[in-house]
Amino acid sequence: MEKRYKLTSGKKLYEQVLERIKGMIAQGVYQKGDMLPSEKELMEMMGVSRITVREALRLLSEAGLIETRKGKGSFILIDHTQLIPELTAMREYRRGFLDSTDARILLEPAIARKAAESAAREELEDLASCVYTTLPEDAFHRTLIATLHNPILLDWFDQLLKVEAYPVSGLIPPARQGSISADFISQHQKICDAIRGRKGEYAYFYMKEHLEYVRETYEEYFRFLFPGEE
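User: That's the sequence. What structure does it adopt?
Assistant: Structure tokens below.
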């Protein structure tokens, strides 16, 4: 059974379909000479209309990535190595992401514990309102850090977000994948509940547990993208 892809709000649907197909080519799911799934199969995979699929295929064809042959289908014209610049950016992202996450594991549990001790009630309400916020990403963590009123910590976190900026729009990072995103939200809720309950040691533990889960999840994702690479 073909994997189903969940599109998001923001970008136009045909652009998201285009990016998903381009991402699958970059990952080697489809090789040069392979035929893409039919329009109907792409419609089912992406949950979009035929018009949307056709517009995405038209743009991919104009970009020279595929060739659509009437009565036959759409065929890949390029090798995934031609998308190496994007994959190179992904490798750099991998290094920066894992390093920044290690730094977060060292500091953010202590920040969560301190917030449980000192955050004002209104700040805790702001934090609770961010539990289910997925965009902008890491809004929950930034709101938590802001409760300490330390501009150096906020600058540190903002710099980490720049390091972690996702470089390849055609691939879907774990934080934007449905099941993983739900796990992150559940973990944020546990952290928030501990902080609001003024349970500093629980907040410390749950934050450390969450960030270690984030790291493990992304490590698995990177191993999928770059099999055999450490």
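The chain has two domains: 13-78, 84-225.
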